[in-house]
Amino acid sequence: MDWTITETLDIGDRFDKHLARRLPEMSRSRLQDLIKEGHATLNGKAAKAGVALKSGDVVSITIPEVAEVEIKAQNIPLTILYEDADIVVLDKASGLVVHPAEGNPDGTLVNALLHHIEDLSGIGGEMRPGIVHRLDKDTSGCMVVAKNDTAHRRLTEAFSERRIAKIYLAVVNGVPKEEGGRIQNYIGRHAVDRKRMSILLDGAGKEAITEWKRLAVDQGCALIQCRLLTGRTHQIRVHMREALQCAILGDPIYAQPNKQRVRVPRLMLHAWKLSFNHPIHDQPMAFEAKVPAEFEPWMGKVE
């Protein structure tokens, strides 16, 4: 597509900002890639993203075909809570890795989604689902996935601006003294064990906020409801272990599962509820993932 710069609003504007305003359905990063790859040009020539537009400049942009990815589709069972043309909301099983990586080249949620989604339009020029947030391998529960660029960009913005409500359930080893509270600090990579995250007392790292409430007690362990106001790596696991001094049952990184009060077959962390406005039509949506059977001894005592 081609157009000529004539409007006062556009004259003097950066090339990349102009494209973002003209093509709001595309993410900034995608537009930057199109500029770098020469698919977006000025007066028939490649241009830098920051060049200022002049009256009479001709802007041309060609959207290349969506590229196939090397990740293979696999028929892995999924529990779908909701699906439309733009998003998929699912209940991720404990033990399922979200994205292929070293050590987990396949058998992941992304592999399963590539098999399941029939109307995927691509994310960032690649035929892949848009992962906008992650759950740890052993955490179960609600996740939302984008099926196109626009949904991906708007969901990413909603997470960044804390417009997504996320409520988790955790069973911890021991019983916190208080009935509830708010944990607010900074989390970053552990200084020695690089697989772990830790609360950083010097203010380094990223802000992490968790509101928590004790729901029930059984066998000397407590069921905790956690509302995440931020989404840091291992946030709940770190906050339970380091702030409340009660590690999550079955946590192989932040606890010693064989020395906890109750033996459990998994990490006792579940993304219970997820709510947000739909990224396209802005309709409020709320989802709840069925509480796993392993939580029942504690759920049965919730008043």
Automatic annotation (TrEMBL):
It is an enzyme of class 5 (isomerase). SUPFAM superfamilies: Alpha-L RNA-binding motif (SSF55174), Pseudouridine synthase (SSF55120). NCBIfam families: rluA_subfam. The active site is at D136. This is Pseudouridine synthase. The keyword Mitochondrion does not apply. One of its GO terms (molecular function) is RNA binding. Residues 13-77 form the RNA-binding S4 domain. It comes from the Bacteria. Responsible for synthesis of pseudouridine from uracil. Keywords: Isomerase, RNA-binding. Coiled coil: none annotated. It catalyses: a uridine in RNA = a pseudouridine in RNA. PANTHER family: MITOCHONDRIAL RNA PSEUDOURIDINE SYNTHASE, RIBOSOMAL LARGE SUBUNIT PSEUDOURIDINE SYNTHASE D. Pfam families: PseudoU_synth_2, S4. GO terms for biological process: enzyme-directed rRNA pseudouridine synthesis. Its EC number is 5.4.99.-. PROSITE patterns: PSI_RLU, S4. The keyword Transferase does not apply. Belongs to the pseudouridine synthase RluA family.
